[in-house]
Amino acid sequence: LEAELTEVSRRRRELARRKVCRPLEYLAGIYPHEEEEMPCVFCGALGRHYSDSCIQIRTGQERAQYLRRARRCQMCLELECDGDSDCVKAKIPCFQCKRTGHASAVCTLPEVSLQIEADKRHCELVIDGLNARLRHLRSLREARHR
Prior knowledge:
It is a single chain. By secondary structure, the protein is mainly alpha-helical. It has one domain. The protein has helices spanning 2-17, 60-69, 109-144. The longest helix is centred in the last third of the chain and has 36 residues, at 109-144. It comes from Haemonchus placei (Barber's pole worm). This is CCHC-type domain-containing protein.
């Protein structure tokens, strides 16, 4: 049990060191008046939501695949862009992961973060269970030696 506790604790520490971000928020509405006719790149809805809040195509991976199939840039989401260093968004970091090379709408860190948080909670539950079992076994051993 102690070896298992050591291993699960190591895994929990490893997960705690991983980069995470807040989960995506799927917010309805376009705020500036001049953007109210702006279509969502993924579902085409006019003025209902920004592309990074689309509920039709939700994950970064699905959105990136959609952009590739539609021959759209991963950084600016536009059709007429090759997605190279000349892209107007090439040097703008992603809101989620702070890296360049993709738009926030296609970042996979939010989904990865959810999995990391779930794995951390699972490790904590396992650690609590192992500690409880070890305490119980120690109390039984102490009771026998009295």
